[in-house]
Amino acid sequence: MNFINEVNNFKSIFFKKQNVFLVLIIFIIFTLDRFSKIKIINNLNDRVYFVNDFINLELIWNTGIGFGFLSTETELFYNLITLLVGLVILGLLYSAFISINIDNFIYSIIIGGACGNLYDRLIYKAVPDFIDFHYNNFHWFTFNVADIFITSGIIIFIIRSFFVKN
Q1: What is the mean pLDDT of residues 152-163?
Q2: Which of 8-12, 23-27, 94-98 is predicted with the least confidence, judged by mean pLDDT?
Q3: Cβ neighbour number for residue 113 with a 10 Å cutoff
Q4: How far is CA 2 from CA 5, 12, 15, 41, 114, in A?
Q5: Could you give the residue numbers annotated as active site?
Q6: pTM (predicted TM-score)
């Protein structure tokens, strides 16, 4: 009897109408990220495309985590980071499914971007970063569309935590 209750609890958490919306957001963000990376990989080999005085497009293969932190040539360390990223995504997915309102949306933004980068880590063994934001000689870390969604989601989550009390 306890097993049946657990299955029913699982169904009630994961098959809610709002979670369909969450999966749709994740899919849209993942698709936008994939589309942008495929365009860059296919069209920007060893070239720099100057968009304006502040943004260049240049393909960089990142073996680290966000914005190139912890980049490494060691396969074991790379695989451990990839496993950790996968586990974090699963934890966020669970949190998103049991959350409501804005938290659900925030988690889906982060998960969509994280899934895009995890896909690249598994397929290419590196993440293609290509947006070079700069001012004069100061260059920010090179990033991609997935990083924009991950960072935006985290910033929204932090701001929300200051203004919304549980």
Answers
A1: 92
A2: 8-12
A3: 27
A4: 5, 15, 20, 51, 35
A5: 129, 147
A6: 0.82
Q: Is 95 exposed, middle or buried (0-12, 13-18, 19+ CB in 10 A)?
A: middle
Looking at residue 139, its amino acid is H
DSSP 8-class letter at 135: E
- Cα of 114 vs its chain's centroid, Å: 2
Q: Residue 117: which H helix or E strand, with range?
A: helix 101-123
Specify the pLDDT at position 53: 82
Structure tokens at 27: 């899919």
Sheet arrangement for strand 55-62: 48-50, 55-62, 127-135, 138-139
| pLDDT value of residue 48 | 78
CA dihedral of residues 110, 112, 114, 117 (deg, nearest 10): -150
β 127-135/138-139 pair status = antiparallel
What percent of the chain clears pLDDT 70, i.e. is strictly above it?
Answer: 83
Query: Is 6's pLDDT higher than 90?
Result: no
* Whether residue 66 has pLDDT greater than 70: no
Q: Specify the residue for token string 């960072």.
A: 151
